[in-house]
Each structure stands twice: as structure tokens, then as C-alpha cells.
Amino acid sequence: MLIDKLDQYIEDNYYSFAMPGHKRNKNILNKALPYDRDITEIRGFDNLNDPKTIFKDMEDKLKEIYKSFDFIISTNGSTCGILSSIRTLTRKNKNILVQRNSHKSVYNAIEIFNLDADFIDLLIDCDIAYDIDYDDLENKLKNKDYSAIVLTSPSYEGFMLNLKRIRKISKNTKIILDMAHGSHLILDKLYDELDFDIAITSFHKNLSALTPAGGVIINNKSIDKKEVRRNMAIFQTSSPSYIICQSIDDMIDNFQKFYMLYNSLNENLDDLYNIKLSNLKFINNKNKDKSKILISCKNTNINGNDFSNFLYKKKIEVEMVSYSYILLLSSIFNQKKDFNKLKQTIINMDKNLSYKKDSFDFSYKIPKRALSINDALRRKKKIVDFNNADKKISGSFIYAYPPGIPLIVPGEIFDIDIISNIKNLLEQSVQLNIEKGGFIILD
Ligand SMILES: Cc1ncc(COP(=O)(O)O)c(C=O)c1O
């Protein structure tokens, strides 16, 4: 085990004339930081970018845990795994089909690998994307030959796709699954390794390893694992953090205990979801990972910011705030007392609220495309006033945060509906990354 080996190394008290530069010297440096456990690929220790001993052993254990054909550890989060997986699978065919509300790293992959991306439409309710449009997916697959489909399940908010249905529709097209928010699903029957060809997950989001620990789960023997790893070594630092790796080691060592903790988490969650609310509302359904607690304050006299400010005053930290809901992330490491505090605070708050009709509903449509993202980003750009952008080609991404859906991406064409939707969102104080003077368009 990596941790045991390091314990021994520390005890042996070597004089360090190797990296890192801090030399484990705590005379000056802050004693609270883990300098003594921070090493690099010194004698007897392994290289994560070409694992042969300790890291190979860790990857073999993760392979067993995730019941997969192969596993590659990432010390650069899911971001690195997403870039590597997409690059590997799109070497021969640049056409890719992508869920519209994909993470920025997917859009970065489209840009840097110069991919020709089409987007799968979303279904929206309560201002959140809760699923994809399966008919849209099927139609797009009929009309083009894609190297891969990039999907996200569970989403940031916890919504799960019907991956079995997608498997049937997609036939032989490979599925790259962004499972950044689902490393813990292996503790549940919600995880099925047969649902994807390659998945990328972040241990730091829902399990115990330190930020940004993650990994790539390969489940199709035909995927060139060496090429995925070569790409990981391209996008990942050449000095992967041993501190992060030890936290992965610790996670692996404790994994069996996680199943019990997951049962307790579910009991606590059931208890929470059972409380009767008059104004606030839990957003939940059977296709949702319930550890992502979504509470809507739509049609009440407060907005999401008021809601989260109130919780913060009561010392409750939330994950994300939107104008009409908040997201709280729970994990197997939350304790009963955390849930009691949350429960009581929400009950008290709910009592003091009243009904107020909310006329705003988030909506969006995918604009028509003139150019690929990469082509558009390389063109000369200028800013036009909002009112003069109709039929112009966007030179930038405009995101609505939350729910994290791009309203337009570089190369897509503004139309009157999109412009008026953006104006509406601005009126609702939805966070949009827009220049002050107007929209960035191609010159
Ligand atoms: C859906 C999704 N995918 C991928 C990532 C990237 O994960 P990481 O921070 O581990 O690189 C994130 C980050 O929040 C995310 O929300």
C-alpha cells in the first residue's frame, strides 16, 4: 500500500537531495501542511503516468470496485479524463454528439480537437435540465455517423439518464459518460458498468479522496487504453501529487465501510425528504440521485439567494444557488447531526414563507450553426449592441449559470428568440457571461 510504504520511508529518515524543494523541513514552514508526505517519483515509488507497481496495484483495485475492464487514476480531476477520452475516441472521425448541458471541459475538447459537434436537446422543468430528448438523440444518430456520444449522468443536480434506452438507440456508437458527479453510485444499484464504454468520475466530489482526485473507467476492450493513458500524460501534470494519490489509497482501503455509510446516508435522506413543507418544495424523482438535495423556492416570497443567505446565517453551506432553487450536496460522510440541523432549519424557514406567484420559467433553444466552435474562435470578432445581433454569428459562449446550459456557443447564429430569452434572463438577474456593450460576434 502506498500509505504504508510512505510511513516506512518517513521513518527511515532519508536526506533529500531530490524534488520537492521543501525537503520536509518544517522549521520555517507551516506545520499544519503535509510536507512530510509530499514526495515525487523517487526510488521505490511508482510513476502514475506509467504505473508498474504501487499505482498499478491501486488501479487494479479500482478496476474491481467499478467492475470494469480497466481503470486509470487522475490527479487532475475528471477534466483531464474527459479531454483524454474524447481525444482518444475521435482520432478517426471528428463528428461527435454531445449533450447540450455538458461541462466546460467537453466544450474545451470540441475546441482543441477541432471537432464537429452536434448537440442533444434537453428536457427542462422547474428551471433545471432533468433529462435529454431521446427522440432528438435517435434522429441525430440516424442522420450522421458519430465517433461517440458524450453524456452526463448523474448531472450536477443529480438527474440520471436512461442509459439502457440510450444503449439501445445508439447501437455501436461509443458512449463517453461524464460521471464526474457519480463516483458514489457504485454503492447503489444505480450504477451499471454495461451502460457506457468509457466513464470519467471525480472521487473528490462525492467520495473521500482529496480535490481533484478522479479516474477513467474503461469498459470496452476495443478502446485503446494505451492511447487514453498517453493522453492522460499529455493533459495531466508530469508530477502527479502523491498527497492526492495517498487519499485515493485511503479511499480504496476504506471502500468496504462505504456501503454501510451509504445505508445511513439513505436513511437520513429519506427522513429529510419526508418532512412536510408548505412553501418550499423538494425536487426529486425516481431517476434522481437523492444525495443531491434540490429545494425549490419558486412561487414563494423569497429567491434562491435569500434562501442560501438564511442557511448561511445558520452555518449551513450550500453547493449552488439559482434564482428559484438551491442545491445541497450530501455524502456518506455527512452525519446525523448535519441532517438534523438542516431539517430543523428548513422547517423553521418554510413556516415563515408565503405564496407569491412566479411568472418566470427558464427556457432555451439550440441555435442554428454556421461554423464549428474552433473555426469561430479563430475569426476576428467585434461587439454589437443586443438589438443588432439578429442573424449574426456568435464569437463567444454565453452560459446561464445556473443551470449551466450554454445559450449560444461560438459559430452559432443569434435570432430574435435567443436574444429576447437572454434579455429576459438578464432581467431575472440570472448570471450570464456577457460583455457590457453587447454580444461578441464575428466581424
Ligand atoms: C458535469 C461535470 N463534469 C466534469 C467536471 C470536472 O470535474 P473536475 O473538477 O473533477 O475536473 C465537473 C466539475 O464540476 C462537472 O460538473
From TrEMBL:
SUPFAM superfamilies named in the record: PLP-dependent transferases
Domain Orn/Lys/Arg decarboxylase C-terminal: 370-415
Gene3D superfamilies: Orn/Lys/Arg decarboxylase, C-terminal domain, Type I PLP-dependent aspartate aminotransferase-like (Major domain)
The entry's keywords: Aminotransferase, Decarboxylase, Lyase, Pyridoxal phosphate, Transferase
Source organism, top-level taxon: Bacteria
Record domain Orn/Lys/Arg decarboxylases family 1 pyridoxal-P attachment site: where: 2-249
Signal sequence, start to end: none
Pfam families reported in the protein's UniProt record: OKR_DC_1, OKR_DC_1_C
GO molecular-function term, one example from the UniProt record: carboxy-lyase activity
Cofactor requirements of the protein: pyridoxal 5'-phosphate
Family from the record: Belongs to the Orn/Lys/Arg decarboxylase class-I family.
Protein name: Aminotransferase class V-fold PLP-dependent enzyme
Organism: Anaerococcus porci
